[in-house]
Amino acid sequence: MSEMGVVGMASDVQKLAMQGRRLTPEEVAELEKKVADQPADIDSRTKLLGYYFLCRREQPGAEETHQRHVLWLIENAPEAEIMGTPFVTIDRILQPDAYDTAKKAWIKTTDDLPESPAVLRHAARYFLLHDRDLSETLLQRGKRLAPNDPEWSSAVGQLYSLGMISLSEGPERKDLAIKSFGEYQSAYRLSGPMEQEFLLQSLAKVAFEAGDIDAAATYAKEMLQVAESGRNRGNHLHHGNLILGRVALFNGDVEEAKSYLLRAGQTPGSPQLKSFGPNMVLAKALLEVGQKNVVLEYFELCEEFWEMSRGRLNQWADLVKADRVPEFGGNLAY
Q1: Distances (CA, A) of 270 to 29, 158, 231, 260
Q2: 230: which DSSP letter?
Q3: Letter string b/e over residues 195-218, b meaning 16 or more CB atoms within 10 A of that residue's CB
Q4: How many Cβ atoms from other residues are within 10 Å of residue 328's Cβ?
Q5: InterPro entries, from UniProt (predicted)?
Q6: How far apart are CA 89 and CA 103, in angstroms?
Q7: How far apart are CA 1 and CA 10, in angstroms?
């Protein structure tokens, strides 16, 4: 099946894909000729995928070409690193026929290579948003192959956590939170210190949603302790304080919750916070108990680091001043 041995996997897939986003039309044509002559040149395909992923909505024919490269890779190089990135995404809503074609190819590939961890991991990622049951099946197969690899439990935990986003409060959401928490705990136990640190945010969030308030507080405090060393400081300060604020509010201490909200807004920021922005779950909860002044102050603090807010903080502030609770959208999940 695979022609990977001819050229090998991309050594730095993200860097190559980002290089592709800066290609000129002449360079694209040259790379297309190159992969036509050498189909197993994964690095060149990776650059092309970076290019087409950026312009596939605007440039005529780019979407179809992007799909063609994705399909070739599924059928011939499913273990390539690029297959585990968003650059190979095909949207089921906008491109249903192409999505289904790729789906069939992935199912065949996982049947042909049933014991390849990379293939199972990449296929599961492809199905993560639109075919979660299939994604879970593939991840569980991976867990059976390598039960001591924390990556599988972490991925299953993420799958359950994503499933919570569209659910309102209730038994179904809590059940998913409990399952997610269990998977993240397994991943934490199997991981080394650095990997454990990166799991803290997910652990704290799903522990709270699962109703294990003490565990949520414990993981949140650990985030703040780790932040003192400077590692991932911005994210840890933001999310650790927010979880502790939710715990305080759960326990009826509104003043302490307000204090934690402001501390969360005093984060120096991070690449994620600068682009996707701050989390608004605690802010929303405080608005619902009439604490609009502290939320407006929180918005002002967030302006210091949210570089890509596109005016949303000002829009939300106007709604809050009018005694309305904004629709925070994705900022309730980030």
Answers
A1: 37, 21, 11, 19
A2: T
A3: ebbbbbbbbbbbbbbbebeebbbe
A4: 19
A5: TPR-like_helical_dom_sf
A6: 11
A7: 18
CA neighbours within 13 Å on the CB side: how many for 284?
13
Of 78, 87, 83, 88, the C-alpha closest to 113 is 78
Q: Closest Cα to residue 159, out of 143, 183, 141?
A: 183
* Contact of 265 with 302, CB cutoff 8 Å: yes
Least Cα distance to 7 among 52, 32, 48, 38 occurs for 38
Tokens 């001591």, located at residue: 148
- Residue of 79, 87, 10 whose CA lies nearest to 43: 10
Give the contacts of 29 (CB within 8 A, at least 6 positions apart): none
Residue 235: Cβ-neighbour burial (10 angstroms; 0-12, 13-18, 19+): buried
Ordered per-residue pLDDT tens for the chain, 334 residues:
333 333 334 348 888 998 988 899 999 999 999 999 999 999 999 999 999 998 888 888 999 999 999 999 999 999 999 999 999 999 999 999 999 999 999 999 999 999 999 999 999 999 999 999 999 999 999 999 999 999 999 999 999 999 998 888 899 999 999 999 999 999 999 999 999 999 999 999 999 999 999 999 999 999 999 998 877 899 999 999 999 999 999 999 999 999 999 999 999 999 999 999 999 999 999 999 999 999 999 999 999 999 999 999 999 999 999 999 999 999 998 8
**DSSP per position, 301-330:** HHTTT-TT-TTHHHHHHHHHHTT-----GG
List helix spans (H) across the chain.
Answer: 13-20, 25-37, 42-55, 62-76, 96-112, 117-126, 132-145, 150-164, 171-190, 193-209, 213-227, 233-250, 254-265, 271-275, 281-287, 292-302, 312-321
Task: Extract the tokens encoding 57.
Answer: 């909505």
pTM summary value = 0.86
Token code pair at residue 158: 């993420």
Residue in the structure block whose two tokens are 């199905």 = 127
